[in-house]
Specification:
Elements (H helix, E strand, L loop, with lengths): L4 E2 L18 E4 L9 E4 L8 E8 L6 H10 L5 E5 L6 E7 L3
Parallel strand pairs: 1-5
Antiparallel strand pairs: 2-3, 2-4, 4-6, 5-6
């Protein structure tokens, strides 16, 4: 079982995590777990911190339901990011990006 860390919550639309797709790399602009401000970056960038393993549409609470979804979709995930904003709810399953 993977020890997952939830790094998301209900977030403002100022980030562009909603544009993320499987295989994209992400950068975290904030140290706040409630508002990590993830943005898509080029995987060759020194800013790349995470890789998207799965993107699952729907509303998820950070915790067991989200963790179960990530375990089913992305066995090697390390982190979860949930977003609920204007009807575009989704879950990202992430792992550290290896440079």
């Amino acid at each position: 079982m993977v020890a997952a860390v939830a790094i998301g919550g209900f977030l403002a639309s100022r980030d562009d995590a909603h544009t993320a797709a499987v295989g994209d790399c992400m950068h975290r602009d904030s140290t706040s777990d409630d508002n990590p401000d993830l943005e898509v970056v080029d995987c060759s960038s020194s800013d790349a911190q995470y890789e998207v393993l799965a993107k699952i549409d729907g509303s998820f609470l950070s915790g067991t339901p989200a963790s179960s979804k990530c375990e089913a979709e992305a066995k090697n995930f390390q982190y979860m990011y949930t977003q609920s904003d204007d009807g575009t709810d989704f879950l990202l399953c992430l792992k550290d990006h290896k440079k």
